[in-house]
Design goal:
The structure is a homodimer of 338-residue chains. The first copy, chain A, has 338 residues and is α+β, with helices and mostly antiparallel strands. Helices cover 47% and strands 17% of the residues of chain A. The radius of gyration of chain A is 26 Å and the shape is elongated. Chains A, B: It holds the Pfam family HrcA.
DNA sequence: GCTGGCACTCGCCGCGGGTGAGTGCCAGGG
DNA sequence: CCCTGGCACTCACCCGCGGCGAGTGCCAGC
């Protein structure tokens, strides 16, 4: 096991490297942090830390930089979450409070998070999986053409066009609308299939085809929309990545455009609490030099979606984690209110 | 006026520079293009072109590169639009045909355009300004809470929550819904304010407050949604920008995140036909080393929105213009069908 | 187990010469 | 009058070199 001081040395190395972006040597360390020991001692500690794989030297006779494993230890054992200051918290709230609809909430959240962390922000739209149906509406656009509108408790609205196999009267429509809503309103998405199972049979033979089409479209929408959408922002911050960056930045931009990749990325985060994925811990290889800090957020006690930031492994973990947590909390509040 | 051959020299310079990304000299030019004259002659022509500001040398005793003015002349006089090949056209159509809804159409268009041009693609959602109302729906969510859903002929759906000043009965609701639709369905957005002007008065005193609220929300939505949304993609292509790129890429990424900037950018394009903005011709200074090729597209004969690509001034203009035009054409078709 | 001392490594920086692509100019020829 | 070949000149780029200094590992001593 590593001694207390060696952990302290690791912490100091991470701190300095994050700040300066340059390999940090033993002398500089003792000067900037009052460790109470000489450079030579620190050198021994560094040798030990390197032996264990927590730090590495880019080339012989250079300072050390933390490895992914080193950051992992730092995040798990050495770093706390730096809480936001009161003014910062107020600013967050003010910024989010003006939002007028869901798109706006998500948009503001992305911008805010990108600005606070100076990194790339990713915000998932509130998931439909755990959501409930607020209302289902059916509109007749033409004799044999309907529009299905699905409204969720998170304020999301989805619509689908439906071409009916046969004309469908206004009374039948009103009937279907009423029955559908009495069954599914307020219920969870996952329960809907069961709830509407036998609805078709109770209609006139003439209308059964249309009813079946409507129902299957509804179920389809539920499934389709469980594949989440998301919004990203702050990509300009990628330019602060490092010196070597054409090589670094390209795969990251590519990964960010693959919504599937990002969703998986966020999806891997544990449901509650914050998740930090460091470097190669990320499944996607384009992101092997980035870290992802993510957390769930939600309107109630349950998380309905996730948000997070993507930045270089060399990032200010405590600060980033603090910002992510604070933003998630306030977004949750906003959603709960609306 | 510039002689025919000098224009040919300029064309050759643009062609080679776009291909190689390196200043092009007189000898190389005569070798690659059979101009029928010697390097010395070309040098004289080059001197003249430089005199007029169409080309420049990065430093003495280096080859020439085109200036913005040079590209402008090239685009206006020397370059045609390179039409897509038949297989390419088929691929475009196939790629777009599978789209299920408006978001999907726009999403696919962005990806397609980015891939075809290997540059950053920007697609504006079909504008509501020129659109007509297909249907307005009112749903009662709670005794004093309504939801307004607006459906446009381009398949876009917008919703707004409305808190009523007083409870509003189902019959009144149905009444309002019917009267509203009979007045505005099929009409242009711009005509709506006039059409609903006197609607409030025809209702019971008790309901007038709510009706007024609904109407003002509707008008608000029309106005708000005239501010367009857009989608961008292919940002990873920015890495192919050039060598010096931390400096170049950063302001571009920033500009791309400012939707307002992009909208203005596309907005400046003339209504019909293709617009090419080169380098400093772009109002936004972050984009002073990029060119924007944009064109309107629409479901009918009228353009309802715009799309385009953003790339380095050193781009393949004929090819890019061809791709942009082709994609716009097909998107228009798709929208017209749905 | 910490410390100071010491020899060593090696990336970074600035210097200097050689190379070659490219230029401008000029005199001569169709 | 315009094009051409020739010629001297410029200057960015490449490469090798040596000095510098931060940083290291090791070791003997307290």
């Amino acid at each position: 096991m590593l001694s207390e001081r060696r952990l302290e040395v690791l912490r100091a190395i991470v701190h300095d490297y994050v700040g300066t972006e340059e390999p940090v040597g033993s002398k500089a360390l003792t000067e900037r942090h009052h460790l109470g020991v000489s450079p030579a001692t620190v050198r021994n500690d560094m040798a030990a830390l390197e032996e264990e794989g927590f730090i590495a030297q880019p080339h012989t006779s250079a300072g050390r930089i933390p490895t992914d494993k080193g950051y992992r230890l730092f995040v798990d054992k050495l770093a706390g979450v730096k809480p936001m200051t009161a003014p910062e918290r107020r600013a967050i709230q003010n910024f989010l409070d003006g939002a007028v609809d869901l798109d706006d909430v998500v948009g503001r959240t992305v911008r805010l998070l990108a600005q606070l962390t100076r990194q790339v922000a990713v915000v998932q739209y509130p998931s439909l999986t755990r959501s409930t149906v607020r209302h289902v509406e059916l509109l007749s656009l033409a004799p044999a053409r309907l529009m299905l509108v699905l409204i969720t408790d998170t304020g999301r609205v989805e619509q689908r066009m439906i071409d009916c196999p046969a004309p469908f009267g206004e009374t039948s429509l009103a009937d279907l609308r009423a029955r559908l809503n009495s069954r599914v309103a307020g219920r969870r998405f996952t329960d809907v299939p069961q709830l509407v199972q036998d609805l078709t049979e109770s209609f006139d033979k003439d209308d059964q085809g249309t009813v079946a089409t409507v129902l299957s479209t509804l179920l389809e929408t539920l499934v389709e929309e469980t594949e989440e959408r998301l919004m990203i922002g702050g990509t300009a911050n990628l330019t602060r990545f490092g010196h070597d960056f054409p090589l670094t930045i390209r795969p990251v931009l590519e990964a960010l455009e693959e919504q599937v990749v990002l969703l998986k990325l966020l999806g891997e985060a544990t449901d509650s609490g914050m998740t930090v994925k460091i470097g190669h811990e990320n499944a996607h290889e384009g992101l092997s030099s980035t870290s992802v800090v993510s957390v769930g957020y939600g309107s109630g006690s349950e998380a309905v979606a996730k948000l997070g930031v993507v930045g270089p492994t060399r990032m200010d973990y405590p600060g980033t984690m603090g910002a992510v947590r604070a933003v998630a909390r306030y977004v949750g509040q906003i959603l709960a209110e609306s």
